[in-house]
Amino acid sequence: MTIQLKSLLAASLLSIQLAGHAQPKVWEQHVRVSRQVGDVALSMNRGSSSTPRDFYALAENKKSRIRAEFQGACSELVAVNVLTLDSPSNLERFLAPQSGPDLPIHDVLQVMREALAEQCEQLQVVRITFRPFLPMQGAISYEGTLTKTGGWRLQDGRINTSYDNAYVFEIRARDASSAVGLNFKGSCEKEPTLLLGASPAGLKALSLEHYVDAVLAASPKYAKECPGVTRIRYAIDPMPGAVLCKKEGDCFLEASFGKEWVVDASQFKVEEKENNRPIRNVKDMAEVLAAGRFDIVEDYRPFFSFFVMSYFIAYAEHCESNIREPVRRQIKFKKQNGDSIGELNREDDFITIDMKVEKEYANVFDAHFGPGSRWQIIRGFSIATDPRHASSPMDGASAAVGSMLADMEQMREAIKGCTGDRVLTVQQNMVSFARSQPPVTGKYATEKKPKMKYPPTGPSAPAFTAAYLEKRERARHEEKQDSNPPSRLNATKDAASVPATPSQQDDSVPPASTSIGTVQPNAPAAASMPAPPGKDSTNDAKDRAAAMQELRRAHAHESSEALKEFQAKMKSATPQERRTLQLEFRQRQQERQQELQRRMLELSGR
Q1: Has residue 350 got a pLDDT over 50?
Q2: Which residue(s) pair with 146 in the sheet?
Q3: What is the pLDDT of residues 570-585, one digit of tens each?
Q4: Residue 95: pLDDT band by 50, 70, 90 thresholds?
Q5: Who contacts 206 (Cβ-Cβ below 8 Å, separation ≥6)?
Q6: Number of continuous H segments (helices) and E segments (strands) in the chain
Q7: What sign does the dihedral 212-213-216-217 (CA atoms) show?
Q8: Is 60 exceeded by the pLDDT of residue 88?
Q9: Where are the domains of the chain?
Q10: Distances (CA, A) of 66 to 43, 462, 581, 595
Q11: DSSP-derived 3-state class of residue 310
């Protein structure tokens, strides 16, 4: 009898045993469930979100290096990611025929499917994707479908079912500056209309370009979850003050897919004045500073930091003899070298710049060097990744380098002469603005005016947005009522069969702490992690503090033991095995840390 067959029989026996008596659901508890089924280790724990029936499950076979992951809430249809740490050559052997029966995933998939059915009585369909754990392992991928009516047999491809609308997924996407974005939770629609929102911190600098950028980030993610979708409409809320609908009524951004995603913004018009961008480059900043117009500079603080940094670097290079009391500063650019799996194994000095700064102004340079560097990096990346350069990455890189060279040339022109009155006036006002001191005015004039302020004007599609938000609030209310399901210790079968969560919920305002498009699973930790005490105990401060201390102690002990085991394995491992061990060790450490953080939050009552 093969190992795979043994695992399948063990999983089947487990399902028979579980059917004999009701078990509390993992999403109703604050403990992690772990069990071994043949060669497959299964771990499940309650999810971190407030969504009813939300949980995380991981099934892993360390021998075959196959793992299956699920994160979400119970539904008739769920999606499972199956990942492999195997080598690309082995993946090609299994995936060449693109046939499910040939894949080395069936024992892991069987255990995961049994676990999902145990938690979700309404389960009818499981969609899977199978792909390498690391992008460098290749672009090989497989999609399959298991259905209850089909005896849970793996079928190739995304099979259409009557439960497809029950599939609920999440999308988080933002523009490059994180000013606007999409936080979507819902199911597939053939021609969806979504709502983009703005972060409160980004309202001041809001523009239509921010929304277009967010559309280009969100559309491929939606289409990945819903194959066949080639057109998506987006309402925006709020509209930048200078942006209006061309016609009365609702207006939308429309994304469509041909060879790539493109955005049609023709339903909008922009009524910005010519002077709405008074400072566009280094030359403009120098002109405004010479005139002492701090009211204009105020709207460009990140760029001002870049100007300060560039000014002192250029002055040290071209006007060093005019620095009376120099202090030394050293700027190092480092080159990072990694191995074949991306592990950083060496960091070398690439370029070192030794420069001098006037002692009186050294603190100004130091304060603005960091923010100025970050602004330069973000601006360069934004230029290099502009959608207009999507077909030619080299054009994007050339454009970024060209912009940097233009800045350098304009700064050389701004300090030309080194000791001229205009150069020194720019320098004095630059330092005064940095130190919140009054400017020198009246020496030099500028026709530039402060940036025009356009307060946000509400949604681009008021009728749609009102209906959309009402639907979202209704779904939230229903979800809140369902957020505390009864205990299953003595529950009947009818009480367990709670319908799936509402099909759509969209938090249009992206939270500041969330990364674009990223949903981190609430991954399980090692088996010896203690469970938090019951509700009565956590309400007691002393018991809670003792439990938290014990949790930290257990975490430290597990991490120490894991490190010892890792080091012992590394001593006798081949170079290829070392890379795999490093990857697995980092993943396990990250899972342990995530579990610790989740448990600490639970104990703290937050």
Answers
A1: yes
A2: 126
A3: 777 665 566 666 666 6
A4: low
A5: 179, 180, 198, 238, 240, 456
A6: 15, 19
A7: negative
A8: no
A9: 1-158, 168-272+457-465+499-507, 276-434, 525-606
A10: 14, 49, 14, 22
A11: helix
Rounded Cα distance, 350 and 263, in Å:
40
pLDDT more than 90, % of the chain: 29
- The span from the CA of 198 to the CA of 238, in Å, is 7
What does the alpha-carbon distance between residue 177 and residue 276 come to, in Å, rounded to a whole number? 20
The position carrying tokens 């367990």 is 496
Structure tokens at 381: 């990346």
371 contacts: CB under 8 Å, gap ≥ 6: 302, 305, 306
Average pLDDT over residues 292-311: 93
* DSSP H or E stretch at residue 58: strand 54-61
First to last CA, the chain: 50
- Kind of pairing between the strands at 193-198 and 180-186: antiparallel
DSSP secondary structure code for residue 273 in this structure: -
Question: Tokens for 15?
Answer: 């399902």
Question: Residue type for 592, please?
Answer: R
- 440 phi/psi in degrees, rounded to 5: -90, 125
Contact 249, 222 (CB under 8 A): no
Q: Are 79 and 226 in contact (CB under 8 A)?
A: no
Residues linked to residue 270 through DSSP beta bridges, in sequence order:
243
Q: Which neighbouring-strand residues pair with 235?
A: 195
β partners of residue 197: 181, 237
**How far, in Å, CA of 320 to CA of 307, rounded?**
18
Say what the pLDDT of residue 332 is: 76
